[in-house]
Design a protein that fits this description.
By secondary structure, the chain is an alpha+beta fold. The chain has twelve helices and 18 strands.
């Protein structure tokens, strides 16, 4: 009988292992993809691509190698196992290179590459990149975007854990949507009607009664027939809900704390990606807030723009609010608060001083909404009354409403669009650039 006792020690090393002190002159084994091949006379430079970055390997013809394999047969994007000596070389990435003594080919491409992934930048259309997404992401700048995105999610999780939140995972197939409206994907669930959830709203509210503070990262689905640079039909939402709040501004303060933590994490752990993409991280030490009606009025006055929709912000207005806040306060972020009740969900708590507005907010980042949140109604009678005023039926929401009948604490929460936040952070204009495999009106593959 054989037993497994834990992670198996591998002979293969990582780049981080090679660059540690005392490795010079040692023989190592390392695997990777052949990112590029450069031949200079009798010397061949193989640039290996690893998850951490690029590693320079050197093959010199005529030097003693362990087998008779010809390096001339190796192509770009072959995967190989290299054996060689670690040598310090200031001109190489990470200041080291591997002098090859043996190469084992693990796989070779069987067709020509549709994209030049070894180039510094893929000078091709977004459509071409999306059609060949798994290959396009091998480009080090393209994949750096999703390392930055990893840092955002990692920061969200780590920060909320530190604040006493519990991570939950809620179903994405349901009987009724929390958001309502017509933009719902409907499906048949064992001969019963069902929908894909537009948000985890109902579930995270219910879990506040269990854990006090909860968060989730997961997909949400919107059947919106938009074909814009800012919309996706499936995106990742970073959600949290927190109980026993005294006012809704606590939610904005919590998000500000997350942004501060996340920016510091990126600076510390994602320096290579920041450098690759040429990013300048925003200052989030102080984020201004402005009321909805005041924001519309100031934009209208400063930029001579007529207010056309008194109940919501149009995309152009969001851009102008972002411009105004940057010009006057030097901030890329702004919380817009107290949205009209008419345009917020039934569970949004109305402002006691003026019930036509809600204790809710959006966070705009460079003029684009990346977060929606606010305080929720926690009193059962008030919740039912608001549903009745809107002509809503309780069918399909019995489990949700029963929690309020059994008592719920004052609470609120928010949802952050991961792809939008990433897009603004990396300075792209199309949200598809910040989504691994986008789903929109015309795309179901790859």
């Amino acid at each position: 009988m054989e037993f497994l006792t834990g992670v198996k020690q591998q002979k293969m090393v990582r780049i981080t292992d090679i660059v540690t002190e005392g490795m010079e002159g040692k023989t190592v084994f390392i695997c990777g993809s052949v990112h590029a091949i450069r031949k200079i006379g009798e010397v061949v430079f193989l640039i290996l691509r690893k998850s951490e970055g690029l590693l320079q390997c050197v093959w010199e013809k005529g030097k003693k190698q362990k087998d008779l394999f010809s390096i001339d047969f190796i192509k770009e994007e072959s995967t190989v196992e290299v054996e060689g000596m670690v040598v310090c070389e200031a001109r190489a990435p990470y200041g080291v290179e591997i002098h090859i003594s043996n190469i084992k080919v693990l796989s070779v491409p069987t067709k020509s590459l549709p994209l030049p992934v070894a180039k510094w930048k893929l000078n091709t259309s977004l459509e071409a990149k999306l059609n060949h997404r798994p290959l396009a992401l091998r480009n080090i700048r393209e994949r750096a975007v999703f390392r930055i995105q990893e840092g955002i999610v990692r920061g969200f999780r780590d920060f909320l854990y530190s604040q006493g939140f519990t991570e939950i995972h809620t179903p994405k197939i349901g009987a009724k949507s929390a958001e309502g409206g017509a933009n719902i994907f409907k499906l048949e669930y064992f001969h019963r009607p069902a929908i894909l959830q537009q948000s985890p709203q109902f579930y995270k509210q219910m879990m506040v009664g269990v854990f006090d503070r909860v968060f989730e990262t997961g997909p949400v689905f919107r059947a919106e027939k938009h074909n814009t640079k800012r919309h996706l039909n499936e995106y990742t939402s970073l959600d949290f809900e927190m109980g026993y709040i005294e006012e809704f501004t606590e939610l904005m303060a919590m998000e500000t704390g997350f942004l501060q933590y996340m920016m510091q994490l990126l600076k510390t752990n994602y320096q290579e990606e920041i450098k690759l993409l040429g990013l300048s991280l925003p200052n989030v030490e102080r984020i201004p807030q402005i009321r909805f009606e005041q924001a519309k009025k100031r934009v209208s006055e400063k930029y001579q723009r007529q207010i056309r929709n008194p109940y919501d912000l149009e995309p152009e207005e969001e851009l102008l609010i972002g411009k105004l806040i940057q010009e006057e306060y030097g901030s890329d972020f702004v919380f817009v608060t107290h949205y009209p009740s008419k345009k917020r969900p039934f569970y949004a708590m109305d402002d006691p001083s003026d019930p036509t507005f809600t204790l809710s907010f959006d966070l705009l980042y460079k003029g684009l909404e990346v977060t929606t949140g606010g305080q929720r109604i926690h009193d059962y009678q008030k919740l039912i009354k608001k549903m009745e005023e809107r002509g809503m039926e309780t069918e399909g929401m019995e489990q949700y409403l029963s929690c309020f009948q059994c008592g719920m604490p004052p609470h609120g929460g928010l949802g952050i669009g991961l792809e939008r936040l990433t897009m603004q952070l990396i300075g792209e204009e199309n949200v598809r650039e910040a989504c691994l495999f986008p789903r929109d009106l015309g795309r179901l593959e790859p």
